[in-house]
Predict the structure.
Amino acid sequence: MSDAVIWSLVISALAVVAVRRRSVAIALVAAQSIILGASAIADAAGESTALAVAGAALLAKAVVLPILLLSVVTRTRETRWIQERHPLARLTIALAVALALAALVPRFGLESAAAEHAAVGLLALGITTAVVRGAAIFAALGFLVAENGLYLAALAAPGGVPAFIELGLVFDLVVIVSVAGAFSAKIHEELGTGDTTLLGALRD
Protein backbone atom coordinates (compact mmCIF):
# COMPACT_ATOMS: atom_id res chain seq x y z
CA MET A 1 0.00 0.00 0.00
CA SER A 2 1.44 3.36 -1.04
CA ASP A 3 2.34 6.17 1.33
CA ALA A 4 -0.12 8.44 -0.53
CA VAL A 5 -3.01 6.11 0.35
CA ILE A 6 -1.88 5.85 3.97
CA TRP A 7 -1.55 9.61 4.37
CA SER A 8 -4.94 10.25 2.75
CA LEU A 9 -6.56 7.95 5.32
CA VAL A 10 -4.88 9.70 8.25
CA ILE A 11 -5.63 13.22 6.96
CA SER A 12 -9.29 12.38 6.35
CA ALA A 13 -9.56 10.95 9.89
CA LEU A 14 -8.12 14.17 11.31
CA ALA A 15 -10.60 16.15 9.22
CA VAL A 16 -13.49 14.18 10.76
CA VAL A 17 -12.33 15.41 14.17
CA ALA A 18 -12.27 19.03 12.99
CA VAL A 19 -15.21 19.60 10.61
CA ARG A 20 -18.47 21.00 11.93
CA ARG A 21 -20.99 19.57 9.46
CA ARG A 22 -22.09 15.99 9.99
CA SER A 23 -22.64 15.49 6.25
CA VAL A 24 -19.04 16.48 5.48
CA ALA A 25 -17.73 14.06 8.12
CA ILE A 26 -19.87 11.26 6.66
CA ALA A 27 -18.48 12.00 3.18
CA LEU A 28 -14.91 11.86 4.54
CA VAL A 29 -15.48 8.48 6.18
CA ALA A 30 -17.11 7.16 3.01
CA ALA A 31 -14.06 8.31 1.06
CA GLN A 32 -11.85 6.33 3.46
CA SER A 33 -13.78 3.13 2.76
CA ILE A 34 -13.65 3.77 -1.00
CA ILE A 35 -9.87 4.25 -0.85
CA LEU A 36 -9.41 1.06 1.18
CA GLY A 37 -11.76 -0.94 -1.03
CA ALA A 38 -10.14 0.27 -4.24
CA SER A 39 -6.68 -0.50 -2.83
CA ALA A 40 -7.75 -4.03 -1.87
CA ILE A 41 -9.19 -4.73 -5.33
CA ALA A 42 -6.11 -3.25 -7.03
CA ASP A 43 -3.80 -5.38 -4.89
CA ALA A 44 -5.87 -8.48 -5.63
CA ALA A 45 -5.39 -8.05 -9.41
CA GLY A 46 -6.66 -11.56 -10.16
CA GLU A 47 -4.31 -13.16 -7.65
CA SER A 48 -6.38 -13.15 -4.45
CA THR A 49 -10.10 -13.83 -4.46
CA ALA A 50 -10.30 -13.19 -0.71
CA LEU A 51 -8.73 -9.76 -1.10
CA ALA A 52 -11.11 -8.91 -3.93
CA VAL A 53 -14.07 -9.96 -1.77
CA ALA A 54 -12.80 -7.78 1.07
CA GLY A 55 -12.44 -4.85 -1.32
CA ALA A 56 -15.98 -5.34 -2.62
CA ALA A 57 -17.27 -5.44 0.96
CA LEU A 58 -15.50 -2.18 1.76
CA LEU A 59 -16.94 -0.50 -1.34
CA ALA A 60 -20.42 -1.73 -0.38
CA LYS A 61 -19.91 -0.35 3.11
CA ALA A 62 -18.84 2.97 1.57
CA VAL A 63 -22.27 3.21 -0.05
CA VAL A 64 -24.67 1.59 2.43
CA LEU A 65 -23.54 3.09 5.73
CA PRO A 66 -23.22 6.72 4.51
CA ILE A 67 -26.73 6.51 3.04
CA LEU A 68 -28.00 5.24 6.40
CA LEU A 69 -26.22 8.00 8.34
CA LEU A 70 -27.24 10.74 5.88
CA SER A 71 -30.87 9.66 6.28
CA VAL A 72 -30.46 10.13 10.05
CA VAL A 73 -28.91 13.58 9.50
CA THR A 74 -31.78 14.55 7.19
CA ARG A 75 -34.36 13.54 9.82
CA THR A 76 -32.54 15.26 12.71
CA ARG A 77 -31.74 18.76 11.48
CA GLU A 78 -30.13 20.90 14.18
CA THR A 79 -31.61 24.35 14.79
CA ARG A 80 -28.29 25.62 16.19
CA TRP A 81 -24.63 24.67 16.25
CA ILE A 82 -23.85 22.09 18.91
CA GLN A 83 -21.47 23.56 21.46
CA GLU A 84 -18.16 21.74 21.23
CA ARG A 85 -14.49 22.32 21.86
CA HIS A 86 -12.76 24.56 19.33
CA PRO A 87 -11.65 22.58 16.23
CA LEU A 88 -8.00 23.35 17.01
CA ALA A 89 -8.43 21.97 20.53
CA ARG A 90 -10.06 18.81 19.15
CA LEU A 91 -7.24 18.36 16.64
CA THR A 92 -4.63 18.86 19.35
CA ILE A 93 -6.23 16.21 21.57
CA ALA A 94 -6.64 13.79 18.66
CA LEU A 95 -3.06 14.23 17.45
CA ALA A 96 -1.68 13.82 20.96
CA VAL A 97 -3.58 10.56 21.50
CA ALA A 98 -2.73 9.18 18.04
CA LEU A 99 0.97 10.05 18.23
CA ALA A 100 1.26 8.68 21.76
CA LEU A 101 -0.30 5.34 20.79
CA ALA A 102 1.71 5.10 17.58
CA ALA A 103 4.89 5.63 19.60
CA LEU A 104 3.94 3.18 22.37
CA VAL A 105 2.62 0.28 20.30
CA PRO A 106 5.50 -1.98 19.19
CA ARG A 107 5.87 -3.34 15.65
CA PHE A 108 3.34 -6.09 14.97
CA GLY A 109 4.33 -7.40 11.56
CA LEU A 110 2.68 -5.26 8.88
CA GLU A 111 4.37 -4.60 5.56
CA SER A 112 5.76 -1.23 6.68
CA ALA A 113 6.17 0.93 9.77
CA ALA A 114 4.05 3.62 8.07
CA ALA A 115 1.13 1.20 7.70
CA GLU A 116 1.42 0.14 11.34
CA HIS A 117 1.52 3.72 12.62
CA ALA A 118 -1.39 4.70 10.36
CA ALA A 119 -3.50 1.71 11.48
CA VAL A 120 -2.91 2.52 15.15
CA GLY A 121 -3.47 6.21 14.44
CA LEU A 122 -6.82 5.57 12.76
CA LEU A 123 -7.93 3.41 15.67
CA ALA A 124 -6.95 6.17 18.12
CA LEU A 125 -8.54 8.92 16.01
CA GLY A 126 -11.78 6.95 15.73
CA ILE A 127 -12.03 6.50 19.49
CA THR A 128 -11.10 10.15 20.06
CA THR A 129 -13.76 11.28 17.57
CA ALA A 130 -16.43 9.38 19.47
CA VAL A 131 -15.28 10.95 22.76
CA VAL A 132 -14.63 14.61 21.89
CA ARG A 133 -17.47 15.28 19.46
CA GLY A 134 -20.81 16.33 20.92
CA ALA A 135 -23.18 15.19 18.16
CA ALA A 136 -24.41 11.62 18.60
CA ILE A 137 -23.80 10.76 14.94
CA PHE A 138 -20.06 11.23 15.49
CA ALA A 139 -20.03 8.21 17.79
CA ALA A 140 -20.98 6.07 14.79
CA LEU A 141 -18.43 7.86 12.61
CA GLY A 142 -15.77 7.23 15.24
CA PHE A 143 -16.52 3.48 15.06
CA LEU A 144 -16.19 3.61 11.27
CA VAL A 145 -12.83 5.41 11.39
CA ALA A 146 -11.50 2.94 13.98
CA GLU A 147 -12.76 0.01 11.90
CA ASN A 148 -11.02 1.43 8.83
CA GLY A 149 -7.83 1.32 10.88
CA LEU A 150 -8.42 -2.39 11.46
CA TYR A 151 -9.01 -2.90 7.75
CA LEU A 152 -5.81 -1.04 6.91
CA ALA A 153 -3.94 -3.40 9.24
CA ALA A 154 -5.63 -6.40 7.61
CA LEU A 155 -4.77 -5.27 4.09
CA ALA A 156 -1.16 -4.52 5.06
CA ALA A 157 -0.65 -7.83 6.89
CA PRO A 158 1.38 -10.52 5.12
CA GLY A 159 -1.19 -12.88 3.60
CA GLY A 160 -4.06 -10.64 4.69
CA VAL A 161 -7.01 -11.66 6.84
CA PRO A 162 -9.48 -14.38 5.73
CA ALA A 163 -12.41 -12.93 3.81
CA PHE A 164 -15.07 -14.46 6.08
CA ILE A 165 -13.60 -12.60 9.06
CA GLU A 166 -13.63 -9.31 7.15
CA LEU A 167 -17.21 -9.88 5.98
CA GLY A 168 -18.17 -10.65 9.58
CA LEU A 169 -16.64 -7.35 10.68
CA VAL A 170 -18.65 -5.49 8.04
CA PHE A 171 -21.88 -7.17 9.18
CA ASP A 172 -21.17 -6.39 12.83
CA LEU A 173 -20.38 -2.78 11.95
CA VAL A 174 -23.60 -2.36 9.98
CA VAL A 175 -25.51 -3.50 13.08
CA ILE A 176 -23.54 -1.15 15.36
CA VAL A 177 -23.95 1.86 13.09
CA SER A 178 -27.66 1.11 12.62
CA VAL A 179 -28.14 1.08 16.40
CA ALA A 180 -26.07 4.27 16.75
CA GLY A 181 -28.16 5.95 14.05
CA ALA A 182 -31.41 4.95 15.77
CA PHE A 183 -29.99 6.13 19.10
CA SER A 184 -29.07 9.49 17.54
CA ALA A 185 -32.56 9.89 16.09
CA LYS A 186 -34.16 9.04 19.45
CA ILE A 187 -31.99 11.58 21.31
CA HIS A 188 -33.01 14.24 18.78
CA GLU A 189 -36.67 13.27 19.14
CA GLU A 190 -36.58 13.55 22.93
CA LEU A 191 -34.27 16.57 23.35
CA GLY A 192 -34.70 18.42 20.07
CA THR A 193 -30.97 18.10 19.40
CA GLY A 194 -28.35 15.42 18.89
CA ASP A 195 -26.05 17.02 21.48
CA THR A 196 -24.98 14.13 23.70
CA THR A 197 -23.50 16.49 26.31
CA LEU A 198 -27.06 17.25 27.44
CA LEU A 199 -27.43 13.63 28.57
CA GLY A 200 -25.14 14.41 31.51
CA ALA A 201 -27.89 16.58 32.98
CA LEU A 202 -30.44 13.76 33.07
CA ARG A 203 -31.46 12.46 36.49
CA ASP A 204 -33.66 9.61 37.73
User: Anything to note?
Assistant: DSSP finds seven helices and no strands in the chain. The CA atoms of residues 154 and 161 lie 5 Å apart. The first helix runs from residue 3 to 18. Confidence is low (pLDDT under 50) at residues 198-204.
